[in-house]
Amino acid sequence: MIRTGIGYDVHPFSEGRRLVLGGVEIPAERGLAGHSDADVVLHAIADALLGAAGLGDIGLHFPPSEPRWRDADSRDLLRRVVQLLGEQWVIANVDATVIAEWPRIGPHREAMRAAIAATLRIEPGRVNVKATTNEALGFIGRGEGIAALAIATLQQR
Ligand SMILES: Nc1ccn([C@@H]2O[C@H](COP(=O)(O)O)[C@@H](O)[C@H]2O)c(=O)n1
Ligand SMILES: C[C@@]1(CO)OP(=O)(O)OP(=O)(O)OC[C@H]1O
Q1: Site annotated as Transition state stabilizer: where (predicted)?
Q2: ipTM of the assembly?
């Protein structure tokens, strides 16, 4: 059996925060606000995996109301999602799109791919990271935040 899941997340920019995308810290004067490290890319991937497995969503497993997830490293959250998947599923592939006017994702694409693959314990060839601007439209176009979409496919062992 094969199952797919979709994930979406968005976080607003905030001064004095670290900018962490796809498990990679990008040197920047501002980052994204959130209860955790606000890694919007890993959150979208977590939701895609949970969706494919029929296990709800990230907020269900790591509620923002719980102090233990404050400033959490989203790679740790994603590792926990992989544990939740159990032995039943193999991650066939993960594909993510970052929607941001800034920063340029291209220079960080391979590092993100490697970080995501290592966190999911799969080969980098099963991971793809893409990016697009929002063509200056809406809140993303005004540079107020970053969104990410992800799709994941699980194959039964
Ligand atoms: N934050 C971003 C946005 C885009 N890119 C790369 O630029 C290409 C063109 O973007 P458009 O929004 O004009 O379609 C896109 O395909 C990406 O390769 C990027 O690296 N970082
Ligand atoms: C990751 C969690 C952890 O509490 O908090 P946030 O960093 O605010 O991120 P969000 O995408 O809103 O997902 C909910 C939470 O699970």
Answers
A1: 35, 133
A2: 0.93
